Amino acid sequence: MPQINVLISEKAFIIKKGLQFILNEIENYSYQFYQNDNTNLKKYLSNNNIDILICNNEFHEENKENIDERKTKTIIIDFEDKSYSKYYINTLEQEKSAITSILQEAGKNKKDKEEKTETISEREIAVVKCVAKGMTNKEIAEELFISQHTVITHRKNITRKLGIKTVSGLTVYAILNNIIDINEVN
Amino acid sequence: MLITKDNKMGDIILHDHQLLAVLNRFDVKLGFGEKTVEEVCKLHNINTDFFLEITNAFHDGNFFTDKKLKSFSLVLIVEYLKKSHDFYTNKKIPEIENLINSIKYKTDDEKFSAIVKKFFKEYVDELNSHIEREEENVYPYVIKLEKAIQNKELEENLFDEIKNQSILKYRDEHDNIEEKLFDLKNIIIKYLPPPENSDVCNVILAKLFRLEQDLNNHSTIENKVMIPAANEMEKEIIKLQKQNLIKII
């Protein structure tokens, strides 16, 4: 199950704690708080793979152009909904289940998309083999007759599917799965 | 739970025993009796407010929204960070290493054991060089900044470093040592064959998860407290220099 990363941009203590309480109960949801300390929101969202941003109307209006709607769904939390966002939580909402279902609805897209492919493909195995041999992206691209950009995409997918981020980790994976012989590794 | 100076030290440990690791870094030993946090701190010459901030941050990862930690002297913060380095390299890593050396596999034991050992060794090397760089370059630099502001004077070569906002360079290079730890867990959980002594692996995993959490807490203090504070001081010194309020020697 892919993890859903939630970013909460909210100052009110009670609202923060309330959201925290509910999010802790939803499986595979992890959350962090956005500290508005000059960090670039756009960068923050993409670096941390934020799937859901929870903020109020005002914040949303100010930062609209920094939010890539295809990647990050915005949930407005406010006492009234003045925005055009698809998802909205009213701070006066009395039912926990209503809030939970909005949070789940906003994360649904990603789950559907990612659950389809979890095993690595032939092509990805070829890339793992090259990485394990210590080849650079450029060398891999030449070896497999693909662009460096494609190599990077493959590597991203491999990391996501296997849960292995480092080169030495991939090398171990390659040895354990007989993709490469232990003697081929320097 | 919010830990306050009037809580009994014994109670907060009963509530969250992971805090023992923090007490260790403050050189506080067991046997608190009915003493409160404040009383224990006084006894050990510890700044109580600082102790509370650190323990609360350790106890509740989201506690960092509070800006209070930034108001403490960087000397205190660096001292704490160094103590936690010490805890990783002299306690936790040797513990885990011993356990890793005792994993046994039913088939091809030699091959698999060698793979895990090698991978762990690489991780330890990376962690050590990371720590070394921080203790030899970053921490002393940060302390020098604080001193410069206090004494209203600084050396010229330090000023050159400040002009380049060196702390931001460090932040950008702040390598991700968590990644290898993440991989190690996954390799043991998913990709190595079942070990003969699973109980050893279970203990290793529990320790790895614990270490990971501790390291995250450690880097949060660096990234959210130390680096922003140092960067503010860099800017402050540049400003003071422009107004001729600080002497360059």
Keywords:
heterodimer, A: 186 residues, alpha/beta, Rossmann fold, Arc Repressor Mutant, subunit A, 5-stranded parallel β-sheet, B: 249 residues, mainly alpha, 2 domains, two-stranded parallel ribbon
Would you give an account of this structure?
The complex is a heterodimer of chains A (186) and B (249). Chain A has two domains: 112 residues, Rossmann fold (3-Layer(aba) Sandwich), CATH 3.40.50.2300; 63 residues, Arc Repressor Mutant, subunit A, CATH 1.10.10. Chain A has eight helices and five strands. In chain A, helix 5 crosses helix 7, helix 5 packs across helix 8 and helix 6 packs across helix 7. Chain B has two domains: 57 residues, no CATH class; 175 residues, no CATH class. In chain B, strands 1-2 form a two-stranded parallel sheet. In chain B, helix 6 runs antiparallel to helix 9. At the A-B interface, helix 8 of A face helix 6 and helix 9 of B.
Question: Nutshell version of this structure?
Answer:
The complex is a heterodimer of chains A (186) and B (249). Chain A has helices spanning 13-25, 41-47, 57-63, 96-115, 122-132, 137-144, 148-162, 167-176; strands at 4-8, 29-33, 52-55, 73-78, 87-90.
Question: Helices, strands, pairings?
Answer:
The complex is a heterodimer of chains A (186) and B (249).
Chain A: E1 4-8, H1 13-25, E2 29-33, H2 41-47, E3 52-55, H3 57-63, E4 73-78, E5 87-90, H4 96-115, H5 122-132, H6 137-144, H7 148-162, H8 167-176
Parallel strand pairs in A: 1-2, 1-3, 3-4, 4-5
Helix pairs in contact in A: 5-7, 5-8, 6-7
Chain B: H1 9-15, H2 20-25, H3 37-43, H4 48-59, H5 74-101, H6 109-151, E1 153-154, H7 156-163, H8 166-173, H9 178-191, H10 198-242, E2 247-248
Parallel strand pairs in B: 1-2
